[in-house]
Design brief:
Blueprint lengths: L1 H33 L3 H4 L5 H6 L3 H17 L3 E7 L6 E3 L2 E14 L2 E13 L7 E3 L6 H7 L13 E4 L3
Antiparallel strand pairs: 1-3, 2-3, 3-4, 4-5, 4-6
Length: 165
């Protein structure tokens, strides 16, 4: 009986550790994005998404081009913050969760707050995490190309709001 109790405590302790790991990895990923360090930023891209985007080099080039286009329009990312991760789910051999994200963009017309959910996936029991930004896609649409994504995840649609100066 005592062994079962210890196993239960270890399980819940490891889930707490995994939630901290999600936040730490997300924060690091966000810092790389703010620095336009796409070499390291793409390390947090889910492998299937990276493959679908044409591989590592193509993804880096696409991200660089998108960031340059934003800058030409006078838009840049001012800050990125992450909320508390959802409950971590076990889906086959992966751990999965969602993570609220807030991005503040500085534009010629003022600041805009963009809120969304990231899908977080670990393939090594929570040691490291990949992130998927579903954008406007619903979970059902996302599961067409990524059928391993749990149906139990709660992905909230993105929202934008203008911030007072």
């Amino acid at each position: 009986m005592r062994a079962i109790f210890i196993l239960i405590i270890m399980f819940f302790h490891s889930l707490g550790w995994s939630q901290n790991s999600i936040r730490e990895d997300a924060k690091q990923m966000g810092e790389y994005l703010l620095k336009n360090d796409f070499e390291h930023y793409v390390n947090y891209t889910y492998p299937k998404v990276m493959k679908d985007m044409g591989g590592r080099q193509q993804l880096k080039q696409t991200l660089q081009k998108q960031m340059e286009e934003l800058l030409l329009q006078g838009v840049n990312i001012e800050s990125i913050k992450y909320g508390e991760p959802s409950v971590i789910l076990k889906e086959k051999k992966e751990l999965q969760a969602t993570l609220p994200q807030e991005v503040i963009f500085k534009t010629p017309n003022g600041k805009i707050l963009f809120t969304s959910s990231l899908i977080c996936i670990s393939q090594n029991d929570g040691e490291s995490w990949y992130f998927i930004d579903p954008g406007e896609r619903t979970l059902e649409i996302l599961r067409i190309t990524l059928p391993n994504i749990s149906k139990k995840l709660n992905v909230t649609p993105p929202q934008t709001s203008k911030l007072a100066e």
